[in-house]
Amino acid sequence: MSGSTIHAIRVHEQGGADKLRFEEIEVGAPGKGEARIRQTAVGLNFIDVYHRSGLYPPPQPLPFVPGSEGVGIVEAVGEGVSAVKVGDRVGYAGPTGAYAEARLVPADRLVPIPDAIDDATAASVLLKGLTARYLLRQTYVVGPQTVLLFHAAAGGVGSIACQWASALGATVIGTAGGPEKVERARKLGCAHVIDYRSEDFVARVGEITKGEKCDVVYDSVGKDTFPASLDCLKPRGLFVSFGNSSGAVEAFEINLLQRKGSLYATRPTLGNYVSKHAELVEAADDLFSMITSGAIRVDAPQTFPLADAGAAQTALEQRRTHGSVVLIP
Ligand code: NDP
Q1: 280 Cβ contact list (under 8 Å, min separation 6)
Q2: What pLDDT does 178 receive?
Q3: Is 181 touching ligand 1 by the criterion CB < 6 Å?
Q4: Does the pTM exceed 0.95?
Q5: Residue 329 alpha carbon to ligand 1 centre in Å
Q6: Residue 322 scores a pLDDT above 90
Q7: Helix, strand, or coil here: 301?
Q8: Nearest residue (CA) to ligand 1, atom 8
Protein backbone atom coordinates (compact mmCIF):
# COMPACT_ATOMS: atom_id res chain seq x y z
CA MET A 1 0.00 0.00 0.00
CA SER A 2 1.35 3.44 -0.84
CA GLY A 3 1.19 6.53 1.33
CA SER A 4 -1.72 8.95 1.52
CA THR A 5 -2.73 12.38 2.76
CA ILE A 6 -4.56 12.57 6.08
CA HIS A 7 -5.47 15.14 8.73
CA ALA A 8 -3.42 15.34 11.90
CA ILE A 9 -2.56 17.73 14.71
CA ARG A 10 1.06 18.90 14.70
CA VAL A 11 3.21 20.91 17.10
CA HIS A 12 5.70 23.15 15.24
CA GLU A 13 6.98 24.81 18.43
CA GLN A 14 6.28 24.08 22.08
CA GLY A 15 4.00 26.44 24.03
CA GLY A 16 0.30 27.00 24.71
CA ALA A 17 -2.66 25.04 23.34
CA ASP A 18 -2.70 27.44 20.35
CA LYS A 19 0.45 25.65 19.14
CA LEU A 20 -1.64 22.61 18.13
CA ARG A 21 -2.22 22.92 14.37
CA PHE A 22 -4.75 20.83 12.46
CA GLU A 23 -3.24 20.21 9.02
CA GLU A 24 -2.75 17.75 6.19
CA ILE A 25 0.25 15.44 6.31
CA GLU A 26 1.49 12.42 4.41
CA VAL A 27 1.51 8.98 6.02
CA GLY A 28 3.78 6.50 4.32
CA ALA A 29 3.42 2.78 3.72
CA PRO A 30 4.37 0.65 6.74
CA GLY A 31 8.05 -0.28 6.97
CA LYS A 32 9.54 -3.47 8.36
CA GLY A 33 7.81 -4.48 11.59
CA GLU A 34 5.18 -1.71 11.31
CA ALA A 35 1.42 -1.61 10.84
CA ARG A 36 -0.64 1.24 9.47
CA ILE A 37 -3.73 1.99 11.55
CA ARG A 38 -6.86 3.86 10.41
CA GLN A 39 -7.79 5.41 13.76
CA THR A 40 -11.29 5.67 15.15
CA ALA A 41 -10.52 7.03 18.63
CA VAL A 42 -7.50 8.75 20.20
CA GLY A 43 -6.94 8.94 23.97
CA LEU A 44 -6.10 12.31 25.58
CA ASN A 45 -3.43 12.11 28.28
CA PHE A 46 -1.63 14.59 30.47
CA ILE A 47 1.69 13.64 28.88
CA ASP A 48 0.36 15.21 25.65
CA VAL A 49 0.25 18.52 27.54
CA TYR A 50 3.84 18.10 28.83
CA HIS A 51 5.07 17.38 25.28
CA ARG A 52 3.25 20.42 23.92
CA SER A 53 4.06 22.86 26.74
CA GLY A 54 7.77 22.07 26.94
CA LEU A 55 7.73 20.53 30.44
CA TYR A 56 9.08 17.46 28.61
CA PRO A 57 11.32 17.71 25.53
CA PRO A 58 9.66 17.09 22.14
CA PRO A 59 9.20 13.31 21.78
CA GLN A 60 10.25 13.57 18.11
CA PRO A 61 11.88 16.29 16.03
CA LEU A 62 9.63 19.31 15.43
CA PRO A 63 7.05 19.42 13.92
CA PHE A 64 5.70 16.33 15.68
CA VAL A 65 2.28 14.70 15.97
CA PRO A 66 1.42 14.44 19.71
CA GLY A 67 -0.60 11.77 21.50
CA SER A 68 0.29 8.33 22.80
CA GLU A 69 -2.89 6.27 22.72
CA GLY A 70 -5.26 5.17 19.99
CA VAL A 71 -7.57 2.52 18.62
CA GLY A 72 -8.41 1.62 15.03
CA ILE A 73 -8.27 -0.92 12.24
CA VAL A 74 -5.09 -2.28 10.68
CA GLU A 75 -5.13 -1.20 7.02
CA ALA A 76 -1.67 -2.39 5.96
CA VAL A 77 1.28 -4.25 7.44
CA GLY A 78 4.99 -4.11 6.61
CA GLU A 79 7.50 -6.85 6.08
CA GLY A 80 7.88 -9.40 8.85
CA VAL A 81 4.64 -8.56 10.68
CA SER A 82 2.74 -11.65 11.77
CA ALA A 83 1.15 -10.60 15.09
CA VAL A 84 -1.57 -8.55 13.36
CA LYS A 85 -3.23 -8.59 9.94
CA VAL A 86 -5.29 -6.23 7.79
CA GLY A 87 -8.76 -5.75 9.29
CA ASP A 88 -7.75 -6.42 12.93
CA ARG A 89 -9.16 -4.06 15.56
CA VAL A 90 -6.24 -2.96 17.70
CA GLY A 91 -5.04 -0.36 20.18
CA TYR A 92 -1.77 0.92 21.64
CA ALA A 93 -0.47 2.98 24.54
CA GLY A 94 2.94 4.56 24.20
CA PRO A 95 4.25 5.38 20.74
CA THR A 96 3.85 9.14 20.10
CA GLY A 97 1.98 10.27 16.98
CA ALA A 98 -1.63 9.49 17.88
CA TYR A 99 -3.41 12.78 17.03
CA ALA A 100 -4.05 11.71 13.43
CA GLU A 101 -6.62 10.01 11.21
CA ALA A 102 -4.06 7.30 10.38
CA ARG A 103 -0.55 6.45 11.53
CA LEU A 104 2.25 3.91 11.55
CA VAL A 105 2.87 1.93 14.76
CA PRO A 106 5.46 -0.77 15.53
CA ALA A 107 3.33 -3.94 15.34
CA ASP A 108 4.74 -5.28 18.62
CA ARG A 109 3.12 -2.32 20.44
CA LEU A 110 -0.40 -3.30 19.33
CA VAL A 111 -2.92 -5.29 21.34
CA PRO A 112 -6.24 -6.75 20.16
CA ILE A 113 -9.38 -5.05 21.51
CA PRO A 114 -12.12 -7.39 22.79
CA ASP A 115 -15.48 -7.19 20.96
CA ALA A 116 -17.25 -6.24 24.20
CA ILE A 117 -15.30 -2.96 24.46
CA ASP A 118 -16.16 -0.15 22.01
CA ASP A 119 -13.49 1.97 20.33
CA ALA A 120 -13.89 5.16 22.38
CA THR A 121 -13.89 3.21 25.64
CA ALA A 122 -10.78 1.26 24.62
CA ALA A 123 -8.98 4.48 23.68
CA SER A 124 -9.95 5.95 27.03
CA VAL A 125 -8.60 3.10 29.15
CA LEU A 126 -5.51 1.64 27.54
CA LEU A 127 -2.79 4.04 28.68
CA LYS A 128 -4.53 5.01 31.91
CA GLY A 129 -5.57 1.47 32.79
CA LEU A 130 -2.16 -0.05 32.07
CA THR A 131 -0.73 2.67 34.30
CA ALA A 132 -3.19 1.89 37.09
CA ARG A 133 -2.31 -1.79 36.79
CA TYR A 134 1.45 -1.47 37.12
CA LEU A 135 1.11 1.07 39.94
CA LEU A 136 -1.13 -1.24 42.00
CA ARG A 137 0.22 -4.65 41.03
CA GLN A 138 3.91 -4.05 40.46
CA THR A 139 5.26 -0.75 41.81
CA TYR A 140 3.63 -1.74 45.11
CA VAL A 141 1.72 -5.00 45.48
CA VAL A 142 -1.63 -3.77 46.80
CA GLY A 143 -3.79 -6.19 48.77
CA PRO A 144 -6.46 -6.32 51.49
CA GLN A 145 -4.04 -5.05 54.16
CA THR A 146 -3.01 -1.99 52.16
CA VAL A 147 -4.04 1.52 53.14
CA LEU A 148 -3.30 3.87 50.27
CA LEU A 149 -3.74 7.50 49.26
CA PHE A 150 -4.49 8.21 45.60
CA HIS A 151 -4.40 11.87 44.52
CA ALA A 152 -6.66 13.12 41.69
CA ALA A 153 -8.93 10.15 42.32
CA ALA A 154 -11.65 11.38 39.95
CA GLY A 155 -9.25 11.86 37.00
CA GLY A 156 -8.50 9.49 34.13
CA VAL A 157 -5.90 7.27 35.82
CA GLY A 158 -7.49 7.83 39.24
CA SER A 159 -10.96 6.65 38.15
CA ILE A 160 -9.59 3.29 37.07
CA ALA A 161 -6.98 2.93 39.82
CA CYS A 162 -9.37 3.60 42.71
CA GLN A 163 -11.82 0.96 41.48
CA TRP A 164 -9.00 -1.52 40.88
CA ALA A 165 -7.43 -0.90 44.31
CA SER A 166 -10.76 -1.33 45.99
CA ALA A 167 -11.35 -4.58 44.02
CA LEU A 168 -8.00 -5.78 45.41
CA GLY A 169 -9.42 -5.19 48.90
CA ALA A 170 -7.36 -2.13 49.82
CA THR A 171 -8.59 0.78 51.91
CA VAL A 172 -8.55 3.60 49.38
CA ILE A 173 -8.33 7.23 50.42
CA GLY A 174 -8.75 9.55 47.43
CA THR A 175 -8.29 13.26 46.97
CA ALA A 176 -10.30 15.33 44.49
CA GLY A 177 -10.90 19.00 43.76
CA GLY A 178 -14.44 20.19 44.52
CA PRO A 179 -17.70 18.56 45.59
CA GLU A 180 -18.64 17.03 42.22
CA LYS A 181 -15.33 15.22 41.86
CA VAL A 182 -15.45 14.16 45.53
CA GLU A 183 -18.81 12.53 44.88
CA ARG A 184 -17.49 10.83 41.76
CA ALA A 185 -14.46 9.46 43.66
CA ARG A 186 -16.73 8.09 46.35
CA LYS A 187 -18.75 6.21 43.73
CA LEU A 188 -15.51 4.81 42.32
CA GLY A 189 -14.82 2.84 45.47
CA CYS A 190 -12.83 5.26 47.62
CA ALA A 191 -13.63 4.49 51.25
CA HIS A 192 -12.72 8.10 52.10
CA VAL A 193 -12.45 11.15 49.87
CA ILE A 194 -10.71 14.39 50.78
CA ASP A 195 -11.47 17.63 48.94
CA TYR A 196 -7.88 18.87 48.84
CA ARG A 197 -9.01 22.27 47.59
CA SER A 198 -10.77 23.02 50.85
CA GLU A 199 -9.29 20.51 53.35
CA ASP A 200 -5.78 19.85 54.67
CA PHE A 201 -5.20 16.38 53.24
CA VAL A 202 -2.35 15.51 55.63
CA ALA A 203 -4.48 16.25 58.68
CA ARG A 204 -7.43 14.35 57.18
CA VAL A 205 -5.31 11.27 56.41
CA GLY A 206 -4.13 11.36 60.02
CA GLU A 207 -7.75 11.44 61.26
CA ILE A 208 -9.01 8.77 58.86
CA THR A 209 -6.18 6.34 59.71
CA LYS A 210 -6.21 7.23 63.42
CA GLY A 211 -2.59 8.33 63.16
CA GLU A 212 -1.40 5.15 61.43
CA LYS A 213 -1.13 6.80 57.98
CA CYS A 214 -0.67 5.00 54.64
CA ASP A 215 1.48 2.20 53.25
CA VAL A 216 1.72 3.89 49.87
CA VAL A 217 0.90 7.29 48.37
CA TYR A 218 0.28 7.62 44.61
CA ASP A 219 0.94 11.21 43.60
CA SER A 220 0.46 12.49 40.04
CA VAL A 221 -0.22 16.08 41.08
CA GLY A 222 3.48 16.75 41.71
CA LYS A 223 4.55 20.22 42.75
CA ASP A 224 1.46 21.24 44.75
CA THR A 225 1.25 18.07 46.88
CA PHE A 226 4.98 17.67 47.56
CA PRO A 227 6.40 17.29 50.20
CA ALA A 228 3.07 17.11 52.08
CA SER A 229 2.37 13.68 50.52
CA LEU A 230 5.36 12.28 52.43
CA ASP A 231 3.62 13.17 55.70
CA CYS A 232 0.80 10.78 54.81
CA LEU A 233 3.12 7.75 54.94
CA LYS A 234 3.91 5.28 57.70
CA PRO A 235 7.57 4.69 58.52
CA ARG A 236 9.09 2.73 55.60
CA GLY A 237 6.11 3.63 53.39
CA LEU A 238 6.41 4.07 49.62
CA PHE A 239 6.01 7.41 47.85
CA VAL A 240 5.10 6.90 44.19
CA SER A 241 5.50 10.10 42.17
CA PHE A 242 4.08 9.34 38.75
CA GLY A 243 3.01 12.68 37.28
CA ASN A 244 3.30 16.47 37.22
CA SER A 245 -0.22 17.79 36.69
CA SER A 246 0.52 20.91 38.80
CA GLY A 247 4.20 21.11 37.74
CA ALA A 248 7.30 19.03 38.40
CA VAL A 249 8.40 18.12 41.94
CA GLU A 250 11.39 20.26 42.82
CA ALA A 251 14.75 18.69 43.67
CA PHE A 252 15.03 17.56 47.28
CA GLU A 253 17.72 16.16 49.56
CA ILE A 254 17.63 12.41 49.93
CA ASN A 255 17.96 12.85 53.72
CA LEU A 256 14.37 14.09 53.66
CA LEU A 257 13.27 10.46 53.23
CA GLN A 258 15.11 9.52 56.42
CA ARG A 259 13.64 12.42 58.40
CA LYS A 260 10.10 11.52 57.26
CA GLY A 261 10.47 7.91 58.47
CA SER A 262 12.91 5.84 56.37
CA LEU A 263 10.64 6.23 53.37
CA TYR A 264 11.06 4.75 49.90
CA ALA A 265 10.43 6.84 46.80
CA THR A 266 10.08 5.90 43.15
CA ARG A 267 9.32 7.79 39.94
CA PRO A 268 8.02 5.12 37.52
CA THR A 269 6.81 5.32 33.94
CA LEU A 270 4.60 2.90 31.99
CA GLY A 271 7.14 2.15 29.25
CA ASN A 272 9.45 0.35 31.67
CA TYR A 273 6.67 -2.02 32.74
CA VAL A 274 5.48 -3.08 29.28
CA SER A 275 8.64 -2.93 27.18
CA LYS A 276 8.36 -6.60 26.16
CA HIS A 277 5.46 -7.59 23.90
CA ALA A 278 4.47 -10.45 26.24
CA GLU A 279 4.30 -8.04 29.22
CA LEU A 280 2.14 -5.65 27.22
CA VAL A 281 -0.30 -8.35 26.11
CA GLU A 282 -0.55 -9.82 29.63
CA ALA A 283 -1.19 -6.40 31.17
CA ALA A 284 -3.81 -5.48 28.53
CA ASP A 285 -5.59 -8.84 28.97
CA ASP A 286 -5.71 -8.25 32.72
CA LEU A 287 -7.09 -4.72 32.23
CA PHE A 288 -9.72 -5.80 29.70
CA SER A 289 -10.86 -8.68 31.88
CA MET A 290 -11.29 -6.31 34.85
CA ILE A 291 -13.57 -4.22 32.62
CA THR A 292 -15.54 -7.01 30.92
CA SER A 293 -16.10 -8.76 34.28
CA GLY A 294 -17.60 -5.54 35.65
CA ALA A 295 -14.97 -5.17 38.41
CA ILE A 296 -14.04 -1.84 36.85
CA ARG A 297 -16.84 0.30 35.46
CA VAL A 298 -15.90 2.71 32.71
CA ASP A 299 -18.18 5.65 31.97
CA ALA A 300 -18.47 6.79 28.36
CA PRO A 301 -15.57 9.20 27.87
CA GLN A 302 -16.04 12.88 27.11
CA THR A 303 -15.29 13.36 23.38
CA PHE A 304 -13.92 16.19 21.22
CA PRO A 305 -13.34 16.21 17.45
CA LEU A 306 -9.64 15.72 16.67
CA ALA A 307 -9.55 19.22 15.18
CA ASP A 308 -10.48 20.60 18.65
CA ALA A 309 -7.56 18.95 20.45
CA GLY A 310 -6.52 22.36 21.81
CA ALA A 311 -9.87 22.82 23.59
CA ALA A 312 -9.60 19.29 24.98
CA GLN A 313 -6.08 19.87 26.32
CA THR A 314 -7.13 23.19 27.85
CA ALA A 315 -10.04 21.51 29.66
CA LEU A 316 -7.60 18.88 31.03
CA GLU A 317 -5.09 21.51 32.15
CA GLN A 318 -7.79 23.61 33.81
CA ARG A 319 -9.07 20.62 35.83
CA ARG A 320 -12.43 20.78 34.04
CA THR A 321 -12.45 17.11 33.00
CA HIS A 322 -13.39 14.06 35.03
CA GLY A 323 -12.71 10.50 33.94
CA SER A 324 -11.21 10.20 30.47
CA VAL A 325 -11.34 12.28 27.30
CA VAL A 326 -11.15 10.90 23.75
CA LEU A 327 -10.52 12.72 20.44
CA ILE A 328 -12.51 11.49 17.44
CA PRO A 329 -10.66 11.74 14.08
P1 NDP B 1 -6.31 13.48 34.95
O2 NDP B 1 -7.60 13.21 34.30
O3 NDP B 1 -6.02 12.80 36.25
O4 NDP B 1 -6.16 15.04 35.10
C5 NDP B 1 -5.30 15.61 36.04
C6 NDP B 1 -6.01 15.91 37.35
O7 NDP B 1 -5.02 16.34 38.28
C8 NDP B 1 -6.97 17.09 37.26
O9 NDP B 1 -8.25 16.74 36.77
C10 NDP B 1 -7.00 17.55 38.69
O11 NDP B 1 -7.97 16.82 39.43
C12 NDP B 1 -5.62 17.16 39.23
N13 NDP B 1 -4.81 18.37 39.46
C14 NDP B 1 -4.37 18.78 40.66
N15 NDP B 1 -3.72 19.93 40.55
C16 NDP B 1 -3.73 20.27 39.25
C17 NDP B 1 -3.24 21.39 38.52
N18 NDP B 1 -2.55 22.40 39.11
N19 NDP B 1 -3.43 21.43 37.19
C20 NDP B 1 -4.10 20.44 36.57
N21 NDP B 1 -4.61 19.36 37.22
C22 NDP B 1 -4.43 19.28 38.55
O23 NDP B 1 -5.12 13.18 33.91
P24 NDP B 1 -4.61 11.76 33.37
O25 NDP B 1 -5.47 10.68 33.86
O26 NDP B 1 -4.32 11.89 31.93
O27 NDP B 1 -3.18 11.65 34.09
C28 NDP B 1 -3.10 11.69 35.51
C29 NDP B 1 -1.64 11.85 35.90
O30 NDP B 1 -0.98 10.63 35.71
C31 NDP B 1 -0.88 12.91 35.10
O32 NDP B 1 -0.05 13.63 35.99
C33 NDP B 1 -0.06 12.08 34.16
O34 NDP B 1 1.11 12.72 33.76
C35 NDP B 1 0.23 10.86 35.00
N36 NDP B 1 0.53 9.65 34.24
C37 NDP B 1 1.71 9.02 34.48
C38 NDP B 1 2.04 7.86 33.86
C39 NDP B 1 3.28 7.16 34.24
O40 NDP B 1 3.49 6.00 33.81
N41 NDP B 1 4.14 7.75 35.02
C42 NDP B 1 1.18 7.29 32.81
C43 NDP B 1 -0.08 7.98 32.67
C44 NDP B 1 -0.37 9.13 33.34
P45 NDP B 1 -8.69 17.58 40.67
O46 NDP B 1 -9.46 18.71 40.06
O47 NDP B 1 -9.54 16.54 41.29
O48 NDP B 1 -7.58 18.07 41.55
Answers
A1: 108, 109, 111, 130, 274
A2: 97
A3: yes
A4: yes
A5: 24
A6: no
A7: coil
A8: 319
